[in-house]
Amino acid sequence: MGAVTREQDQTMSTWTVGEVARELGVTVRTLHHYDEIGLVVPTERSAAGYRLYTEPDLERLQHVVVYRRLELPLEQIRDLLQGGDAQTHLRRQREAVLARLDELAGLVTAIDNALEKTMSDQRLTHEELKELFGGEFYDHRDEAEQRWGDTDAWRESQERQKGYGRAEWTQIKAETDQLQGELARLFKAGVPATDPAATAAVEAHRQHITRWFYDCPPEMHRNLGELYVSDPRFTASYDEEYAAPGLAQWVRDAIGTNADRQDAAG
């Protein structure tokens, strides 16, 4: 795995959570979890209080990412990182990878054979969805089911997802990236949350949910917007992922404005 670099200014020695997440292919929520359990704790903080990773932090995090890809539990990784220098960890990781090569080679043949038979009607596994969505889509699936599993919306969403294959999930991912990117663009441009462009963007977000997952009337969308600011993990997925402090609050406000206008029109 290559070292993380920062092209904007080679004299800079710290990286934001969003930058690290994108470079190493992990989610912001995963980084926050590693911080909370003391596995990889960012050394620095920005003037605004956001986490900043130093080069030693990144070296430790890169070892964690490799060990996780080797399916080691976090507690074992913590123990391994307590001793040994970088060479020790790299040699250990190399040996573990080589030990799995023969097994994986046989699996590839079996998978290829199965793939030929099921290509036209294949459904993605949870792990494949994690890979497609960068890990975020199913990171909190168990928590979400516990929280909303007895609702009609959850049941409708699960029933719809049963019929989605790779083409549908790829389209959902592309739409999600486009929608959230547009929200971030408007916010960074200084567009007020009450502006028609802002409400049109969150309305597109609401229609996306209704089209792919469950019927999401304006009031339910309003409740979802409140979650973006009440749950720090959702807030971070907007504010830190897009390096835009206040974005989650802005999205919540735009959703509320849109819901109010639709209620008045109805």
Short description:
This is MerR family transcriptional regulator. The protein has 266 residues and is mainly alpha-helical. The chain has helices at residues 17-24, 28-36, 55-69, 74-81, 86-118, 126-132, 141-148, 152-161, 166-188, 196-212, 218-230, 232-239, 247-265, and strands spanning 14-16, 44-45, 51-54.
Sequence-ordered SSE layout with sheet pairings:
Elements: E1 14-16, H1 17-24, H2 28-36, E2 44-45, E3 51-54, H3 55-69, H4 74-81, H5 86-118, H6 126-132, H7 141-148, H8 152-161, H9 166-188, H10 196-212, H11 218-230, H12 232-239, H13 247-265
Antiparallel strand pairs: 1-3, 2-3
Helix pairs in contact: 3-4, 3-5, 9-10, 10-13, 11-12, 11-13
Kindly estimate the percentage of residues that lie in beta strands according to DSSP. under 5%
Residue windows where pLDDT falls under 50 for at least 5 positions:
1-11
| Pattern of helices and strands | EHHEEHHHHHHHHHHH
Main beta-sheet strand count, sense and barrel state: 3 strands, antiparallel
Q: What form results from the Cα inertia axes? A: globular
User: What is the CA-based Rg, rounded?
Assistant: 21 Å
What's the average pLDDT? 82
- Strand element count: 3
Question: Could you tell me how far the N terminus lies from the C terminus, measured between alpha carbons in angstroms?
Answer: 55 Å
Q: Strands of the biggest beta sheet: in what spatial order?
A: 1-3-2
Tally of DSSP helical segments: 13
Query: What structural class do helix, strand and pairing data support?
Result: mainly alpha
Helix content: 55-70%
Keywords: Activator, DNA-binding, Transcription, Transcription regulation
Domain HTH merR-type: 14-83
Protein name: MerR family transcriptional regulator
Pfam families: MerR_1, TipAS
